[in-house]
Amino acid sequence: RYKAIVNPMDIQTSSAVLWTCVKAIAIWVISMLLAVPESVFSELAHINDTDNATFTACIPYPMTDDMHPKIHSVLIFLVYFLIPLAIISIYYYHIAKSLIKSAHNIPGEYSEHSKRQMETRKRLAKIVLVFVGFFAVCWFPNHVLYMYRSFNYNEIDPSTGHMVLTLVARVLSFCNSCVNPFALYFLSESFRRHFNNQLCCRRKAQQERSASYLHNSSAIQMTSLKSNTRNTVTSMTQLNGHNLKQEVSL
Question: What global pTM score does this model have?
């Protein structure tokens, strides 16, 4: 997104597709490598709550040391939340800055069209900043609760409030993967219009095909009529000193 908006000419080079594929593969490889430690060191743990009830849970770190859960939760918070948030915040800030700057540098007179372009680019700048806010809101509660449990892993809070907060935090983290289209629908008039058109594609497509067929049929008939009219010409010839008027249909 950053290159497509800030440096659009860079993605049109011959090596752009190759580098994009390399980066995508690298992201998948790094993601799998980050998941390896949890799959290797995970173990079952028996934890007691305040009512002396025993729970069995899968813990993604060794239970031999009290520092393991704390280190694990802090690393997860840094690698999966704080560092990505810093990266997307920096890039989305530059995207928004570039959009606002380009809105003020639109050439030509200050017409109604240029005014709409300025408003559109400013609205896009707000949208990309909203994406950063959604990422933070969706993932922050889940990481905070995980760090809380990691620093208090010998006890379990069986209260209803803790259970509700855990469910809400988990649902929010899942919603981060699908919230962007909904944000675009409410913030972007163009996206909302095209989405509504696709949502009612069958009926509108049939109506458009019918209207197109009627329009084309009428156009063909009018073209044929004009062609016949043009092809009927009047020629004047002189035969034995007399003018002979003849209509010839070409």
Answer: 0.64
Task: Tell me if the domain spanning 80-197 has CATH number 1.20.1070.10.
Answer: yes
Cα Dmax for the chain: 129
Query: What tens-digit pLDDT sequence spans the chain (250 residues)?
Result: 777 777 766 666 667 778 888 989 999 999 899 888 888 888 787 776 666 777 777 777 777 777 888 888 898 999 899 999 999 999 888 888 887 777 666 665 556 666 777 777 777 778 888 888 999 999 999 999 988 888 876 666 777 888 899 899 999 999 988 888 888 888 878 888 888 888 776 555 555 555 554 455 544 444 443 444 444 433 333 434 444 444 333 3
